[in-house]
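Narrative progress, year one. The postdoctoral researcher (J.K.) led the effort to move from monomer predictions toward full complexes, under supervision of the PI. The following entry was the first complex the group processed end to end, covering 645 residues in total.
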Amino acid sequence: MDISKIMQFLIPKDKKFFPLFEQAADNLVKTAVLLNKMLLIQDAEQRDVVISEIKEHEKIGDDITHNIFEELNKTFITPFDREDIHELTSSLDDVLDYINSSCQRIRLYKPKEISPEFVDMAELITQACREIKTAISELSNLKNPKKINNACIRINDIENQADEVYYLAISSYFQEEKNAIELIKKKEIIQTLEKATDMAEDVADVLKTILVKSA
Amino acid sequence: MDISKIMQFLIPKDKKFFPLFEQAADNLVKTAVLLNKMLLIQDAEQRDVVISEIKEHEKIGDDITHNIFEELNKTFITPFDREDIHELTSSLDDVLDYINSSCQRIRLYKPKEISPEFVDMAELITQACREIKTAISELSNLKNPKKINNACIRINDIENQADEVYYLAISSYFQEEKNAIELIKKKEIIQTLEKATDMAEDVADVLKTILVKSA
Amino acid sequence: MDISKIMQFLIPKDKKFFPLFEQAADNLVKTAVLLNKMLLIQDAEQRDVVISEIKEHEKIGDDITHNIFEELNKTFITPFDREDIHELTSSLDDVLDYINSSCQRIRLYKPKEISPEFVDMAELITQACREIKTAISELSNLKNPKKINNACIRINDIENQADEVYYLAISSYFQEEKNAIELIKKKEIIQTLEKATDMAEDVADVLKTILVKSA
């Protein structure tokens, strides 16, 4: 055990990972912005154009994930624990996947209306993605652990707000939507959007683990 | 490799984890008892009072989980493999989360009736949580591995019974419930309850792994 | 660190795992073939007979999984990384679980018709399982890494086709099925079938990881 820990002090840490994490965070913010844009479009066909763009960003994210995993398999000394790199990468990809899935559901289900709770949730997702980007950009030097920590606290706070939006949405759908098929559509779309904020919280959790271990 | 294994014999094992696991198991049993209590209440508003209590217990569980993970990040020599501590903690938390989620669904969906299968499933969940508590209380000394093993066998058996209850419930809902929205409500509530017993089985699986490794 | 890596060259690798993986892959192909057979049966009662057979195969798979995990806990030097053996075993089991779950849903939900998309999806699942079997049979000697790699590429391709089938199915159900309860049935059955191809992709991912590490 932990010859590796000693070696981590002796051998220069591999810096290839940080630009890849930043690419992932950057791609995430861009996708969240497109999500907001899409939800404000009235016309379903025009919405589908933006949904295709979001799909493209999901593929870019897959490539970044793939590059990080390949790097991880090749690299002997990693800047922090391999399992944390793996977890961080997967959770970043999960946020992106849920944003894309929500959009694909909108495209496939063709709900009669864009529920206002979708817009509220997309706004929270975007805030969470921006906080992720802030935290990730501090990760390479760790000179400002407090900045990462504060971003994580805000992500947790955003996730709590998302829970509230979700609960109110579900409650109102079940109270007011009398068309069962429209209810299913709305319910599943808001669930998928809310999942994206859960995944953002997973990103915050692994960032906090990295901070604790490097303290 | 496994200088760590040798060291585990030389260095006193860290005992801080066991009281935390016991807290988690204890909190789980209390929450399961509240679940049963809640399902027997006829009045929806009075039910919501108990559901709020259950939510409080879920927060207590989150704090315990957080404490264990923090301990894990600080501790050099753990009483059993780090990955198993992680897995045990997460699976205990998952049981709690699914109990709470079921309750939140009841609160949000306001189903017209509490289906008798919910009560049957809650009874099985409580039995599983009691078995978990029994097993966990034996974990610190491992003098009675057979006791842990027997608890795990009973949890597996309970999970099989839960599967049966679940299958019969779903089958009867689809046969008898003609209101699609009420069907969705019942189906998702029983699914979430059943998930809690799946997670109890995950707890049993990791306990068995710990037993095998320490044999 | 990585005294283990050195030892892996010195000590004969444990060959017990490969026959177990082959059993798992073989059981998977047989189950997928039964799935196809079942979906072509018009009579619901006769379908249920084949669904019971599929359930038996799922239990066989559980036993194989259990044997691999037990072997893993007993074995000091594994033929490749423990975590990859774990991941491969779990993902093989996940494919089987989702095939079985789809069938159980058909049994419980009693959909008025077997949607043609179920049949298309079952065909893709079977192709993916055959590719898994091909890849697994090459794993013990690794003389033909290209053969494993090609199987993985084909699994990815099959998963993309499955996505297409899924999207078209969901879209047509929401456009054409006016009975909300029948819509729920079809939607959940196709979702569970599609999940089986996702899990096949997870198998391919871990196989690729094993290849990269052993290169």
